[in-house]
Design goal:
Length: about 150
């Protein structure tokens, strides 16, 4: 199966597993809301799949095949089978449902960017040049509305 073949729920769940598995539940919801907030911004595509799979936007997908080849089987098992009973995985799945179906509100004040400064040696220019655009910090992620 290719990333592009996943439905919106599973694709968003995979993104949350890769980007926010270790974050508190509110952090998982916040990361999903960044995707949702981009849907309504003309700078990004207006489809969940297109925003989620846009190159160089979500580091967990960098280096993974999107359209041209299958997701490696061990990764598919890790994403959707091996951790099904783990609380963090279930939180990722629930957060994906909650945001996709608008069951939960936006805790990010309409943020459209986030980063984990602990994992970066240097802040990207969009964060460094816009400290006034920082809307909040949830868990290890800083959220920005640019």
């Amino acid at each position: 199966m290719r990333l592009a073949d996943l439905d919106d729920i599973n694709l968003l769940t995979a993104l949350l597993v890769g980007e926010a598995a270790g974050e508190p539940f509110l952090g998982k919801v916040a990361v999903a809301w960044v995707v949702r907030n981009r849907l309504t911004d003309p700078r990004w595509p207006n489809q969940w799949r297109d925003v989620t799979l846009q190159k160089q936007q979500f580091s967990c997908f960098n280096g993974l095949p999107r359209d041209d080849s299958d997701i490696p089987q061990p990764l598919m098992k890790w994403l959707f089978i091996n951790h099904f009973n783990d609380l963090w995985w279930r939180e990722c799945k629930y957060a994906a449902h909650g945001v996709l179906y608008h069951w939960v509100g936006d805790p990010t004040e309409k943020s459209n960017h986030y980063l984990n400064p602990k994992k970066l040696k240097v802040l990207p220019s969009w964060a460094k040049d816009n400290p006034d655009k920082l809307t909040m910090v949830i868990g290890d992620h800083d959220f920005y509305r640019l």
